[in-house]
Amino acid sequence: MKITVVGAGAVGASCAEYIAIKNFASEVVLLDIKEDYAEGKAMDLMQTASLNGFDTKITGSTNDYSKTAGSDIAVITSGIPRKPGMTREELIGINAGIVKEVSSNIIKHSPDVTIIVVSNPMDTMTYLVHKTTGLPKNRIIGMGGALDSARFKYRLAEALEAPISDVDGMVIGGHSDKGMVPLTRLATRNSVLVSEFISEDRLNQVSEDTKVGGATLTKMLGTSAWYAPGAAVSGLVQAIACDQKKIFPCSTLLDGEYGLNDLCIGVPVVLGKGGIEKIVEIKLDEAEMNKLKESAEGVKKTNGLLEL
After folding, report:
1. Which of 123, 143, 163 corresponds to the end of one domain?
2. Could you give the CA distance from residue 297 to residue 174 in angstroms, rounded to a whole number?
3. What is d(CA 268, CA 260) in angstroms, rounded to the nearest whole number?
4. Same domain flag for 190 and 243
């Protein structure tokens, strides 16, 4: 199992590290445009192998896509990260050109690859890969919902004063501060609805804190977060590589599901060796459906900025 991670910055390096530590891949290739940067990150990570007990081989490459040949899965983290005060949508002009070039080069050397898109604005970048590569839709996946749901569960556990292993919840919709739809109604603590433990006001606060989770960290760190995004990607990669049939909310191209068409947005999917093997249509109430449709309109507006 060969995995390529394009972009050896903080997010890409975290992806590579978590994938290697889980020890299910034979090789991880880190690729970056900056001279010797990916090679240095790969060497540093390989020097942790005996300490962290993994046998995955991590190699680095400066913009040589031939080193990625035969990749089963490729992760695109390339592009400029957010800075304080920036929206994800403001990154579209620069990142669209980068993602288009990267995905084309990956497919040239790995025609059977499954692509996971991390670059922002993530739903629109996922849509761009669909529109420009010709890959089957099951092999193009946007990461956002997996990360947003992890942040939701963190906030739920905080509110409940409960261990996070007790908590389950999901975020659907667009990967943006206004577009996320945390499904508070369905969130549970060890199979009991969270609404049994905390007030509606507190649950609404959890939802709002989740939606600005990325912006909160960007303000604190001065740039985009990297540990949780890297961990979210590694979870998706492992589910595909190990054919786990796990359900994650991911950005996927919809063709009538949830009454939506011709856009990529976060909904629950089953991930296995075929990539997105099934889109799961859960029963939303009227308020949740309205929020999802509103989110979809926002995503379509951003998609309209693409030069296809």
Report:
1. 143
2. 10
3. 14
4. yes
The two three-digit tokens of residue 69, written as one number: 């040949």
Q: Tell me the sheet residues that pair with 167.
A: 189
Tens-digit pLDDT profile for residues 168-224: 999 999 999 899 999 999 999 999 999 999 999 999 999 999 999 999 999 999 988
Asked if 165 and 211 sit in the same domain, the reply is yes
The tokens 């629109």 sit on which residue?
124
The whole model's pTM is what? 0.95
E-strand stretches of the chain: 2-6, 27-32, 57-62, 73-76, 114-117, 140-142, 167-168, 171-173, 180-182, 188-189, 192-193, 246-255, 261-272, 275-279
Active site residues: 175
- Cα separation of 276 and 137, whole Å? 8
Instruction: Name the domain boundary from 143, 177, 204.
Output: 143
Based on the domain organization, do 155 and 124 belong to the same domain? no
Contact 88, 175 (CB under 8 A): yes
Euclidean distance between CA atoms 232 and 290, whole angstroms: 27
